[in-house]
Design a protein that fits this description.
95 residues; 4 helices; mainly alpha; 66% helix
Length: 95
């Protein structure tokens, strides 16, 4: 591929995924360096906090600063955020 050839859709998608993954890694590192403030929460309490912050995100149409830290905590625990608990809010946010 020469410098003036456009990226294929597949390559562009791969690059976007790499960039997003790097951003997530930086955010997780920043959360760790700041002291991992949600590490002591039991999973049930972490999930309740997630629901509260997600609802704020939908109401305010902007991401509360805590959202990145919560996502990082789920990432460090190697579990996914409980999107099933905010399904209605997610649908409202997408409309």
């Amino acid at each position: 591929m020469s410098d003036d050839e456009p990226f294929s859709d597949e390559m562009a998608g791969t690059l976007v995924n790499i960039i997003l993954r790097l951003k997530a890694m930086k955010e997780t590192a920043a959360y760790l360096n700041a002291g991992r403030r949600f590490s002591s929460l039991k999973l049930e309490d972490l999930n309740m906090k997630w629901v509260k912050i997600f609802k704020q995100l939908v109401e305010q149409r902007r991401s509360p600063s805590e959202m990145g830290d919560l996502i990082a905590e789920y990432e460090l625990r190697k579990i996914k955020p409980p999107m099933h608990l905010v399904q209605q809010e997610q649908e409202a946010f997408n409309t």
